[in-house]
Specification:
By secondary structure, the chain is α/β, with parallel strands linked by helices. Helix content is about 30%, strand content about 20%.
Length: about 260
């Protein structure tokens, strides 16, 4: 099996025309050749030094990453830099890198549909995905206090800690969610009538705005997106039974937490 067959399958599931403008040109096959035969596949949230070493050690020559490996345009490849070292290692070992970012976030049965379903939302909208601006998913939960819903979110996403904004006694029944860093979608969540919006990397001024507009916010880690890798592995196993697919053993979340003793 060659890279082209895998790539065609992935881009049929997650079309490039659903990617957001800032992702244009960064998605799909970023390093490698569509004509390369596949040995094994590694799934990851990010292409880090550790993930590259893991791929080499496991004999995998395809890395499927959610976040684009090369995000900013390159003017030089300096082997003394961290990025340059990683590029050199990928090329030396003939590794192929496929990026699936906002096209996967937006697509039907993609990242945000997955997160909404994992949380147990019902009547999830939108039902039909037509454009890249339909990244947010909204759905219903049985009415409950924000305090209880925060615990539900924490359990569903295996989060050690979460931050939230809002009155703990506020009743939540309609919820919006965007995996990763989705603070720019707060106003859309308000427009859709959501009582609570879940995302990562919420800015201070966004939290203040939410307070004023009386929408609760729950901030989860950006790395909750790594939960999707198991689902993607299932899809690949079903589509290509003979393909060896592994989820990286490298932890997705670089943060640690300190608690007072």
């Amino acid at each position: 099996m060659k890279v082209k067959e895998l790539l065609d399958y992935l881009l049929d599931l997650y079309p490039l025309d659903l990617s957001m403008p800032f992702d244009q040109g960064k998605l799909g096959l970023q390093i490698g050749s569509i004509n390369n035969p596949i040995s094994k596949v590694i799934l990851t949230l990010d292409v880090t030094e550790s993930v590259i070493e893991e791929a080499i050690g496991k004999g995998a020559n395809v890395i499927i990453s959610h976040h684009p490996f090369i995000f900013e345009p390159l003017l030089q490849i300096n082997y003394d830099s961290s990025l340059g070292q990683k590029i050199k290692k990928l090329l030396t070992h003939n590794l192929n890198v496929i990026n699936l970012h906002t096209n996967l976030d937006v697509a039907s049965d993609g990242m945000n549909d997955f997160l909404a379903k994992r949380l147990g939302l019902t009547e999830i909208e939108p039902l039909e995905i037509k454009s890249s601006d339909q990244v947010l998913r909204a759905g219903l939960v049985e009415p409950q206090t924000l305090a209880l819903f925060v615990q539900r979110v924490q359990k569903a996403f295996n989060e050690e800690v979460v931050r939230y904004v809002g009155n703990p006694s506020q009743i939540i029944s309609k919820v919006g969610i965007v995996g990763g860093s989705g603070g720019t979608e707060i106003n859309e969540a308000i427009f859709l009538g959501c009582h609570c919006f879940i995302t990562g990397e919420i800015k201070h001024h966004s939290a203040l705005m939410a307070q004023e507009k009386q929408i609760a916010l729950i901030e989860v880690s950006h790395s909750v997106e790594a939960l999707y890798l198991s689902y993607l592995k299932e899809k690949l196993n079903q589509a290509f039974p003979g393909l060896s697919v592994h989820i990286t053993e490298t932890p997705a979340n670089p943060f640690r937490f300190s608690y007072p003793k």
